[in-house]
């Protein structure tokens, strides 16, 4: 690869990682330092600055103040290690960030191969308001990548997602896989509120809002929306401990998916109960396809999940890993995607 092409590719890696708020230790800092030492030009640093902190998505939907401050400080450190003259643009950006107030929320933007993006409002804390559903977890990224690469499974079908959280997987599928309908679901009221906000943030209108939305639009705008023929999107409150088979059947799901919902024994048993109900549910004469993605943090929890699946007559097979790491997720090697095997009676 030519040096100029290598520099562009490096800049794009920084861009994808930064906009998605990936941990700073995962960035290719060593490669950047090597490039800077081989050239006295500051163009690469300025290009990375434009692709990250000064990118239009970042300007409109910024990551946390702390994250931006640490990132620009690292860029300055790399520049200072190879140059004696300060780069004004870097210090101007640092000064601007230092004047910002930190917030409990931040935005993350995940770039799609189509040129579109998925932008999400998240919390800066892993656990907030008694739930882990206000941040995006790696298994959700993994499942979205796999879905994009296997879009035929979702095309023109009704998808139900269990434990949608911030909505990354579902929004990515709605933007790239052309489902007929998509049902996001969760049970925590704060998660449901933020989920709806993220759906709106990405240009979608909930099915329950379609009538009011249409009244507010001009005739030409309505025609434009109709031409897009996007999926019918709904958000459902589903409590796994109380939802009934009848409620699940009404959703008419062709495909059921979930990401990072296998991490706690109690929650796992509730999930198994729901999955068992799907095994006897029928859409167009057959049960839905079910895919569960999760990071294997505790092997005992993983074994419990498999054991309990067996107890209710559900088999499984590991789905092969997809080829493209679109979202630069950190823990891909620890993530497993299972397809549940439901007997058709």
Which SSEs are present, and which pair or pack?
Layout: H1 3-19, H2 29-38, H3 43-51, H4 56-60, H5 65-80, H6 88-98, E1 105-111, E2 117-123, H7 138-149, E3 158-162, H8 168-176, E4 181-186, H9 189-201, H10 210-216, H11 219-228, E5 232-237, H12 245-250, E6 255-259, H13 265-279, E7 289-295, H14 299-311, E8 315-318, E9 335-341
Parallel strand pairs: 3-4, 3-6, 4-5, 6-7
Antiparallel strand pairs: 1-2, 7-9, 8-9
Helix pairs in contact: 1-3, 5-6, 7-8, 13-14
What is the tally of beta strands? 9
Portion in beta strands? 15-25%
What is the element string, with H for helices and E for strands?
Answer: HHHHHHEEHEHEHHHEHEHEHEE
Percent of residues in helices: 40-55%
Structural class: alpha/beta
What is the first-to-last residue Cα distance? Answer: 56 Å
Q: What count of helical segments does DSSP give?
A: 14
Q: Low-confidence parts lasting 5 or more residues at pLDDT below 50?
A: 127-133, 211-228
Shape: elongated
Rg of Cα set: 22 Å
Largest pleated sheet: 7 strands, mixed
Mean pLDDT, all residues: 86
| Widest β-sheet, arrangement of strands | 5-4-3-6-7-9-8
Structural write-up:
With 345 residues, this protein is α/β, with parallel strands linked by helices. The protein has 14 helices and nine strands. The chain has a seven-stranded mixed β-sheet, sandwiched between helices. It is elongated. The model is unreliable at 127-133 and 211-228 (pLDDT under 50).
């Amino acid at each position: 690869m030519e040096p100029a092409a290598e520099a562009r590719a490096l800049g794009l890696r920084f861009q994808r990682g930064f906009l998605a708020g990936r941990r700073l230790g995962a960035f290719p800092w060593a490669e950047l330092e090597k490039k800077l030492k081989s050239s006295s030009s500051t163009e690469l640093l300025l290009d990375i600055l434009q692709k990250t902190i000064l990118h239009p998505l970042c300007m409109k939907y910024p990551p946390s103040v702390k994250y931006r401050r640490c990132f620009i400080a690292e860029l300055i450190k790399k520049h200072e290690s190879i140059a004696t003259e300060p780069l004004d643009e870097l210090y101007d950006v640092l000064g601007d960030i230092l004047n910002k107030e930190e917030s409990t929320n931040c935005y993350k933007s995940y770039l799609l191969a189509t040129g579109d993006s998925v932008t999400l409002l998240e919390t800066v804390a892993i656990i907030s308001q008694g739930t882990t559903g206000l941040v995006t977890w790696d298994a959700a990224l993994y499942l979205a990548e796999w879905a994009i690469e296997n879009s035929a499974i979702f095309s023109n079908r009704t998808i139900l997602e269990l434990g949608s959280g911030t909505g990354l997987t579902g929004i990515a599928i709605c933007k790239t896989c052309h489902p007929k309908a998509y049902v996001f679901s969760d049970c925590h009221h704060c998660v449901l509120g933020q989920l709806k906000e993220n759906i709106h943030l990405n240009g979608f209108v909930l099915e329950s809002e379609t009538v009011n939305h249409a009244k507010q639009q001009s005739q030409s705008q309505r025609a434009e929306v109709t031409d897009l023929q996007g999926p019918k999107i709904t958000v459902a409150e589903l409590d796994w401990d109380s939802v009934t088979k009848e409620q699940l059947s009404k959703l008419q799901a062709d495909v059921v998916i979930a990401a990072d919902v296998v991490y706690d024994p109690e929650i796992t048993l509730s999930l198994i109960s729901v999955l068992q109900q799907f095994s006897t549910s029928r859409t167009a004469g057959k049960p839905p396809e079910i895919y569960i993605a999760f990071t294997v943090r505790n092997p005992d929890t993983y074994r419990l999940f498999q054991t309990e699946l067996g107890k209710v007559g559900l088999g499984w097979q590991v789905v092969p890993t997809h080829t493209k790491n679109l979202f630069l997720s950190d823990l891909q090697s620890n993530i497993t995607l299972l397809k549940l095997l439901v007997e058709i009676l």
